[in-house]
């Protein structure tokens, strides 16, 4: 059976994750030999994570993915017997949806990642649509019975091989900066968060920690963060997405956000603080609690994650001091690696998507 062609639709809401998730999926499908077109409405975030992208181009191919402007889909023919992936319910152009009828397309709605229980019950359900092509809801997830998590073939082996090289050398190769002995002796922390994070609390906890910290902020150093006592802060260059994992693998603690960087930090297998994407009426806090229930972190670590998603600097400082203290940080590290190993034993999202499409074909 020939490999189905894919059209992936991405509408950028804000930040980098919409483009980040769609690109990662598209590139993995292309690497597996599928013809892939990525229809995206804003090239800027893609160019930020993929420096080779020409933000002014209307037709370019990168890593086997043909990157096209959203509007171009209005006059495009959906791939016969192909798969249309609508990311995050972005609704492809009406003319394209009409053209899907009668072409044997499968229509997948790739949902946002959530740890909530109800996801498993909704994963894979069809929803009848006006053009007569059923739309299937595909939910990424952390547990079997969901669509799983994006993870490229060989990623974990690459991680373990990278860690055989000195951290000082890897950080120099990634950032162009030689951090000297600090790179090998300090606790190295990556900071990638939303602007409203309790940074003063983070700074206080790290500055007073007996172990020196080297804190790396890709792109720019947030206001209010500066060297203090045992805390050394450094802005480092924003790295291309395909090298972002290598940066995470250098760190003892990764402060990540949104969706894609969270998953990448899970594959790093070291402690992480997740700054969840904020939603109206605090709906994101329910999502955070659902994730904490699955993560089963030691209590001090779970409290640090909650405090990191709060706005109380004193509470954040206190929770971090507790969680970073030697015996508790070791327990946090052990659980992080244990969960990462368990998650990486599951089939990845792209493989699950291909298997799902195969099953839909066989039963249709
Ligand atoms: O940028 P984000 O906040 O994107 C968010 C989330 O995806 C959220 O779920 C969505 O609702 C919202 O957008 C609209 O966080 P995220 O998901 O981690 O995406 C960041 C991307 O940037 C990710 O693909 C990793 C990449 N990145 C690099 O490539 N290099 C870097 O140096 C850094 C720091 C990030």
Map the helices and strands.
Elements: E1 6-10, H1 17-31, E2 36-40, H2 43-49, E3 60-62, E4 65-69, E5 83-87, H3 94-100, E6 106-110, H4 118-122, E7 126-127, E8 135-138, H5 155-162, H6 167-175, H7 182-185, E9 187-191, H8 199-207, E10 213-218, E11 231-236, H9 241-249, E12 253-257, H10 260-268, E13 272-275, H11 283-295, H12 299-308, H13 313-324, H14 326-343, H15 349-363
Helix pairs in contact: 1-2, 8-13, 9-10, 12-13
The chain binds 2'-deoxy-thymidine-beta-L-rhamnose.
Describe this structure in words.
α1 (17-31) crosses α2 (43-49), α9 (241-249) crosses α10 and α12 packs antiparallel against α13. It is built from 15 helices and 13 strands. Helix content is 41%, strand content 16%. It is α/β, with parallel strands linked by helices and 364 residues long. It binds 2'-deoxy-thymidine-beta-L-rhamnose. Residues 13-18, 20, 49, 112, 192, 218, 238-239, 241, 244, 257-261, 277 line the site of 2'-deoxy-thymidine-beta-L-rhamnose (TRH).
List keywords for this structure.
364 residues, alpha/beta, Rossmann fold, 2 domains, eight-stranded mixed sheet, five-stranded parallel sheet, 15 helices, 13 strands, binds 2'-deoxy-thymidine-beta-L-rhamnose
């Amino acid at each position: 059976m020939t490999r189905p062609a894919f059209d992936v639709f991405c509408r950028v809401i804000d930040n980098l994750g919409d483009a980040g998730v769609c690109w990662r999926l598209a590139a993995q499908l292309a690497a597996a030999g599928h013809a892939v077109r990525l229809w995206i409405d804003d090239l800027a975030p893609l160019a930020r994570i993929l420096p080779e992208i020409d933000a002014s181009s209307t037709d370019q191919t990168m890593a086997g993915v043909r990157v096209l402007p959203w509007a171009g889909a209005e006059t495009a023919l959906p791939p016969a017997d192909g798969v249309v992936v609508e990311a995050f319910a972005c609704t492809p152009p009406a003319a394209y949806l009409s053209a899907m009828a009668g072409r044997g397309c499968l229509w997948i709605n790739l949902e946002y990642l959530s740890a909530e229980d109800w996801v498993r019950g909704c994963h894979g359900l069809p929803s009848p649509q006006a053009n007569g092509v059923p739309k299937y809801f595909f939910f990424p997830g952390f547990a079997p019975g969901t669509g799983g998590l994006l993870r490229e073939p060989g990623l974990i082996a690459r991680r373990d091989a990278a860690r055989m090289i000195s951290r000082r050398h890897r950080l120099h190769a990634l950032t162009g900066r030689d951090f000297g002995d600090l790179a090998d002796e300090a606790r190295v922390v990556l900071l990638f968060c939303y602007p409203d994070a309790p940074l003063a609390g983070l700074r206080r906890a790290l500055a007073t920690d007996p172990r020196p910290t080297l804190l790396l902020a890709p792109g720019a150093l947030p206001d209010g963060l500066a060297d203090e006592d045992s805390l050394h802060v450094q802005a480092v260059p924003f790295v291309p997405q395909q090298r972002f994992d290598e940066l995470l693998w250098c760190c003892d603690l990764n402060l990540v956000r949104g969706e894609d960087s969270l998953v990448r930090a899970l594959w790093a297998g070291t402690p992480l603080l997740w700054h969840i994407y904020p939603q109206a009426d605090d709906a994101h806090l329910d999502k955070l609690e659902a994730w904490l229930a699955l993560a089963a972190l030691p209590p001090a670590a779970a409290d640090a994650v909650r405090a990191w998603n709060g706005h109380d600097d004193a509470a954040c400082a206190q929770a971090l001091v507790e969680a970073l203290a030697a015996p508790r940080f070791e327990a946090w590290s052990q659980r992080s690696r244990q969960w990462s190993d368990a998650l990486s034993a599951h089939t990845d999202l792209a493989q699950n998507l291909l298997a799902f499409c195969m099953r839909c074909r066989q039963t249709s």
